[in-house]
C-alpha cells in the first residue's frame, strides 16, 4: 500500500488509493449500522419515566418515611399533585427534584421560566411631578 501522507502520488497509484478509501468507507458504514442497532435497542428497552406513583411507591423509591413525605408534600418541597385525599407523584419529576437538589417544583422549561418572569414583572407608573 502506498503512503497516503505524501503528496507525490502518480497516476499508477490511483487504484490503490481508491481501494484504500473504499475500505475506509465500508468500515465507517459498518460502524454506523452497529451504532444504529445499539441505539434502537436502547430506545426500545427504555421505558418512559413519566409514570404516576402512589405515595407508598414514591416513599419506597425515595427511601423516605411516609411522615416525612407528607410533611414535604404539604410544604410544597416535593413536586406532586393532590387528587382528592390522594397524592399523585410522577417518577420523572421526582428524579428531576433529586438531581436539582433544591426545594420546590421540578425544573421549569425556558418557556415556563419566561412566563413566570413576565407575570412577576410590574409596570412602573408614568407619573410626573
TrEMBL record:
Keywords: Coiled coil. Residues 18-45 form a coiled coil. It comes from the Bacteria. The keyword Cell division does not apply. Pfam families: HTH_17 (PF12728). InterPro entries: HTH_17, SinI_DNA-bd. Residues 53-101 form the Helix-turn-helix domain. GO terms for molecular function: DNA binding. This is DNA binding domain-containing protein, excisionase family. It comes from Bacteroides ovatus.
Amino acid at each position: 500500500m502506498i503512503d497516503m501522507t505524501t503528496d507525490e502520488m502518480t497516476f499508477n497509484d490511483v487504484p490503490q488509493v481508491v481501494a484504500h478509501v473504499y475500505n475506509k468507507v465500508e468500515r465507517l458504514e459498518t460502524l454506523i449500522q452497529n451504532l444504529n442497532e445499539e441505539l434502537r435497542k436502547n430506545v426500545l428497552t427504555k421505558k418512559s419515566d413519566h409514570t404516576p406513583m402512589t405515595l407508598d411507591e414514591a416513599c419506597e423509591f425515595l427511601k423516605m418515611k411516609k411522615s416525612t413525605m407528607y410533611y414535604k408534600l404539604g410544604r410544597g418541597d416535593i413536586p406532586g399533585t393532590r387528587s382528592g385525599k390522594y397524592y399523585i407523584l410522577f417518577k420523572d419529576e421526582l428524579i428531576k427534584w433529586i438531581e436539582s437538589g433544591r426545594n420546590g417544583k421540578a425544573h421549569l422549561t425556558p418557556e415556563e421560566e419566561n412566563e413566570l418572569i413576565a407575570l412577576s414583572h410590574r409596570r412602573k407608573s408614568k407619573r410626573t411631578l
